[in-house]
Amino acid sequence: MIxxxxxxxxxxxxxxxxxxxxxxxxxxxxxxxASFSILSDLLREVGGDRVEIATLVGPNGDAHxxxxxxxxxxRLAGARLVVVNGLGFEGWLDRLVxxxxxxxxxxxAARGVKPLESKEDDGHKGHKHDHGSVDPHAWxxxxxxxxxxxxxxxxxxxxxxxxxDAYASRASAYLAKLDALDAEIRAAVARIPGxxxxxxxxxxxxxxxxxxxxxxxxxxQGVSTEAEVSAKxxxxxxxxxxxxxIPAVFIENVSDPRLMERITKETGAKVGGRLYSDAxxxxxxxxxxxxDMMRSNIRELSTALSS
Length: 307
Ligand code: ZN
What we know:
Layout: H1 2-24, E1 30-36, H2 37-47, E2 51-57, H3 70-77, E3 81-84, H4 93-100, E4 105-108, H5 142-159, H6 164-190, E5 198-201, H7 207-213, E6 216-218, H8 231-244, E7 248-252, H9 257-267, E8 270-275, H10 290-306
Parallel strand pairs: 1-2, 1-3, 3-4, 5-6, 5-7, 7-8
The structure holds zinc ion.
């Protein structure tokens, strides 16, 4: 009797080891690559401890003009899943995937997003980013990021079926936080007087935000930071700031601040704080996560536009 119980206990212990052992070991984590910092944060939220995330374009980086390195190709080669924004944001990605020889699945986070047309105009003829007329900055609308999270959850579950339930429960907890964030942004915008909901930013990264939350963004640079800012566009913006009495201009974390400073000097519009458009800040900065980034942006907008 005693003997049999011991055998059973030993069997259970062995089983326990078999189930828990690999899942807690470092090597067992799912190797995932995110094309840029915002996607890394979403992957961290949904993937938790089960995933090991490498990020190509890191905090404060500019994915529009990114030049992948041989180390990036190595990261891709070792990955089981690569998560990208899509909508033409990562123009350099296809070549990198090919060069790396990776067998990883490439998942498009923005799948299912209703894309906005980009406002490419005469200032941008001949520039060479290849996303045509689609605006890639869909993450600036929280409703779109809910789609991103669902796509990431499904891609993780496909790459790591054992983690399906864990991914589903982490995703649903995070989706609830996104609902709260969306409500928070709407409440903050509602407190800004209607005739002051207009700003200038240095590149056209906030059309989704503007459409979702009711703020007008004007920018001299177009949707890609790759495009040259023409003198004609700067003149147009300065005219517009004067005519529309736009209260504030913003400097983004990915763009050259000198342009904004010049516009400010000529118009007297207030320089708002820093808006985060295409990248998170460093982890200990004001926009270390997607949620903190959106909160930081709405705080800056509220401060500049309310008084
Ligand atoms: Zn951008």
